[in-house]
Amino acid sequence: MAQSIVKVIVDAPLRGQLDYKNVPELGLRVGERCIVPLGRRNVIGIVAGFSDSSEWPVNKLRKVAGRPDEIAPLSENWMRLTAFAARYYLSRHGMVAVPALPKFFRRIPGPNYANSLSKLRDRKFKSNDAPEDIPLLNKEQEAIVDDFSQSKGFSPALLFGVTGSGKTEVYLRLIENTFKADPKAQILLMVPEINLTPQLVSRIGNRFKDRVVATWNSSMAEGQKASSWLACHEERASILVGTRLSVFASLPNLKLIIVDEEHDASYKSHEGVRYNARDLALKRAQIEGIPVLLGSATPSLESYRNALEGRFRLYKMKKRAVESAELPRITLIDTSLDRPQNGICSETAEKITDTLEKGRQSIVFLNRRGFAPVVECKSCGWHSTCPHCSAYAVFHKTTGRLTCHYCGWSMKLPTSCPKCGSYELQPVGRGTQRAEEELEVKWPEAKIMRLDQDSARRRGSASRMLEAVHSGEVDILIGTQIVAKGHDFKKVSLVVVLNTDPQLLSFDYRARERLFSVLMQVAGRAGRSGEQGEVLIQTKYPKDSLFRYLKDNDFEGFAQEELKARKTASMTPYSAQALMISEGKDIREVLDFLSQVKKIGLSVQTGSVRFYDPVPQTVQKVMDIERAQLLIEADNKMELQRFLAVFTSEIENRQFKNVWHIDVDPLSF
Ligand SMILES: Nc1ncnc2c1ncn2[C@@H]1O[C@H](COP(=O)(O)OP(=O)(O)OP(=O)(O)O)[C@@H](O)[C@H]1O
Ligand SMILES: [Zn+2]
Which GO terms describe its molecular function (predicted)? Predict the structure, then answer.
């Protein structure tokens, strides 16, 4: 049944689908990639449907230019998922679907294409034959595995398990049971950005030796991404372990989705289409009619509330899996009583020395990279600021430069003050580089390693560094939140938290939730096998309730208090939000535009939708561009969605020249 018109989606900000004249000899099917002319070039599009008529004069339509290859079509469910994401995040179907393919599959094939394609197919995935002891499940784990394995159809569940409770083992058993039920099943295991994939992947590989385990993360080379994608699409890979973009992987026989560390902010994309991969994983499971498990030691308040209110099943694991391992003991050190010397309180110093003497490892956590966040002139009060952003330029001693963490601008540290010429320039505050240096002075005999974005810049270096910690080559690991995430370190018995007071006092209402979570995570690296773990937190506010809950290892107590506060103030998750963000050279013009937009919004307002006043963003200027935002809120996501669809098309119709985008369910303000 050859139809004369092909409807195609492409990666361009165009409303609806594009119509082309079909070329029946190509034998195109829905979900297949095709080559179509767009403007003056050819691009890769995806066939979204066929028709016998068009809104456009048929004789003016251009012909489909060809097909890149014979690769099987993307599934109908995949098309539905990407269409949903485009609708929900106010983008275009093609702008979600096409960029979700690896670059290799969205480029017009060159002369060597067939050859490269067969190389991609032939790539060997690492196989593992290390022996593995499979632990007997404990009671908690077993009950969960049994119950979850009974799930039929779409059934979301939250696995809330304290750090070290053995969530990974639960995942492995669920994967195993899924294969038992369907040997051809495919499984998607999602993990946060920058981490532990190597360790996890080799564990999975050891467990499922006869299976192909593919991986996907943003730092992989393009060729690797393409072969992983193809192995999944052609069902040669049974398991995909990947970061946020893997939620869009093509997995035609997908039977189970697991989202590890579901609270992690790296599931949210902050450029292009601002999707949340955790939320889309739930949608994908619903479309596929399959079970989905979200796991965390500190679930997001959204997920925890969904569980409390019965929308997700809630599984709890309250004990550490390793028989002798207890949850760490947390002590608060009041920095107004025990004044830090070079950042370290005396009690902390003693404990670090103790730990070194026992031959155990310590982690020092400081969520700020660089040497010092700002350089100050002691005689005139000059501060190092970025000329292009409303932000300080951070001093990096390793490079001897002042660097802006927003735009990357940098200059050599001047020898004298650029304003008054005085030589009294002084780094103020402390980042990981400075803390590292201070630790080296204090414990010259210790092997100290720093792990943060700067030291982990080169591909693979983060995992090499983590390997060094696992193998015991490091005595003290100092780092930013990269050190907090999910690592199963066996020899760490002390965790020190240097300074988190700025986050405690932040105006962003999610800051407390994030702080609690990162502290719980980093604390959870201590005492995972045997030896009682200790956590020391240096703070000026030891009486804050956040620390009380943390000390009691009481995530649920904390979450319930936060939820109560949010409910009273009708903040998320008790309301739904979207941010309209606009940018330009002049902040007044940007704010004026947002005020106009707000008026338009008010004129089409429905239900509970409400607007705040436009305000400059917290970091108002980045790369000489001024940025402001308009917060839109409604009682629930459905009302907000309904409104946003009308609202954005209203604004598009007016064809403003201003640059703007909308962030639905924003995570930061
Ligand atoms: N049933 C079991 N018996 C003995 N050891 C187990 C069992 N289950 C898991 N373990 C071990 O417990 C340790 C912690 O497990 P795992 O890393 O899965 O914890 P987790 O819940 O993911 O923790 P986190 O949230 O901190 O990442 C691992 O070393 C694992 O091998
Ligand atoms: Zn800058």
Answer: 3'-5' DNA helicase activity; ATP binding; DNA binding; hydrolase activity; zinc ion binding
